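> tool_call: predict_assembly(chains=two)
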Amino acid sequence: MSDAAVDTLATGDKAEITEMPSSDSLPEDEVHCDSATISDEPMPADPRGDVLENAALQGAEAAAPGPPGQPPDANAMESSLNEEVIEDTLAECTDSVSLETEPGSEIPLKEQNDLAVDSPASGGAWAGWGSWGKSLLSSASATVGHGLTAVKEKAGATLRIHSANPGPSEGAQTDTEDGAPEITDAATDPSPAESPPISPPSAPRGMLSAITNAVQNTGKSVLTGGLDALEFIGKKTMNVLAESDPGFKRTKTLMERTVSLSQMLREAKEKEKQRLAQQLSVERTAHYGMLFDEYQGLSHLEALEILSNESESKVQSFLASLEEEKLELLKHDLISIKDIFAAKELENEENQGEQGLEEKGEEFASMLTELLFELHVAATPDKLNKAMKKAHDWVEEGHTPVSVDVTKESEEEMKKIEKEEKPEDPQEDKKEEKSMKTVEEVYMLSIESLAEVTARCIEQLHKVAELVLHGQEEEKPAEDQAKVLIKLTTAMCNEVASLSKKFTNSLTTVGSNKKAEVLNPMINSVLLEGCNSTTYVHDAFQLLLPVLQVSHIQTSCLKAQP
Amino acid sequence: MEAIWLYQFRLIVIGDSTVGKSCLIRRFTEGRFAQVSDPTVGVDFFSRLVEIEPGKRIKLQIWDTAGQERFRSITRAYYRNSVGGLLLFDITNRRSFQNVHEWLEETKVHVQPYQIVFVLVGHKCDLDTQRQVTRHEAEKLAAAYGMKYIETSARDAINVEKAFTDLTRDIYELVKRGEITIQEGWEGVKSGFVPNVVHSSEEVVKSERRCLC
């Protein structure tokens, strides 16, 4: 009865949770680029992040002759030349940031500079290039598809103006009225301002900010299909850069030899897709954590930790109080308990005989009851069993499970289980609908079930710890309890593993018509959470060691005393 | 945006066995009353959001402890990380009222150096005919320890909300006044998620102004 209630509660809370990741991830995006955040019409968080990341990537690639993502042949073949080029590039980069010598730089640029000095220079000199490319390309890519021609024209014009006159950047000036935002953007770039300005020509910088302005103000859209516009801007930029810096000319030639900008952008987009997929799974991971917490898994883990720590200090202080001889004896006992805990892995393999998936749920329930009975602790596995049953039930659509067939269970417990099943009925009625579950639903259910079952496993271990410590009339030797606990933990871990396998199977079935890039992250994430789940359970089990040691000390002392 | 809460308060519910701690919490968190309830083993957990002012939510994490004497030594270990507590007695059970003093003494020893804001709860007030503790004497005892007193019934849902929300408000006030602070290594009060969108737009406005002048 408690369980059903907890469930409802948790479900109620879930709505809140789903909201979290988006608001959580916001700050991060903002760090990357204030400009996008500021633009009058904010774009959805994700695409924005993408574009930026994309652009940053692109910027790095476009700027550097031999970035990690690129074929190493360029580096290998012309390493000496490359070194030079890199140096030049670096000079260019630093130059683009430190504007002290810039006579015609307008206020925003100065401001930029001031702020840049304040901002930490993370990532060394290369970061300069990254951010340089970012400020240009992020804004550029953000506008693609929306007023492309305008962008082209404006960028082209600015570039022309600029190459004619290295000092003033009128374009930037005029755009400042509504273009203030991206100044902040540039200002927050983590550019290495403290690196000394090497080459005097600061022209590229002024031009750049002009482009940034021009590009940014023109519109807002995501990077789709506007590659040629970007390419245009990129080429123009390269030319201008090359004109004012002979070193960069070499960079440019090198770049032209290797890949075209559009190709690189496409690659970057692919990378971005992958990153996005990963990002999604990260958000979902957070989701698991929240659910795990909502099912009070964290609280039970924390409480178990409290008990474990307290027991540990009890053991230590008791050992400290003993004389040599007794100490050795007790130490021996405690170590043998510890050894049993360490032997878990072996047991794990022994027990892994695969059974039919359908039987497993019931099998597990009876095994759980049996093991707890063997432990001589009055812990009832109702909650865990119910969670397991629920998990198995939804994943085996159509297959109606027989009521839990627990062999060694007392009649009372049977009654209890029956009682508790009642509130669940309305959910079971919905079974027909469940056959129409979408991949996302299956995915969410999988994560939720893993979170719930894991939380219940940890609750169970916590309860065992509490009962082992206090409340037993007739204690079973700690060594024996340890052996049973291993079996219990192994059973739990196996069950969780088999559940996550079931869930991925179900995902594969339901999502057979989905593309791999949609389905795979979900499957990976379920497998990952399944792994995490078993780790949680296993960690919780390890927390029981001091508890059993204390229990051993208590019983052996009781024996010794009379 | 339900998930946005200002703080999380950890509350502990203590009192003699069978005074109705779990039932009170279940009424509060699940909105229903269980006729039959198993004795709590060690500690159990519940949580609920409480809106103390419009838009200001506090997440309550409630630790439901076992009242049975045999679990006392474990439940003690859980006191330390709570900011607030409900100390229950059964108005139809004089003994449980007499033990209130003992409970307070015990928690005092085990929460140091922290403090718990307690409210004294006279439970099962629906059973007024079987009352063994008068409201007056309960109020007197509560006042002696600087606690508020409230009578509740989980079965009839009397004052259940009020007991929790009043306590939450009191703690919130103390937190606001800085008399209770969030501390490293103490779980009693935790800061929640606060949207920081406003913050970033403020920055924007600032830099814009500077740019234009």
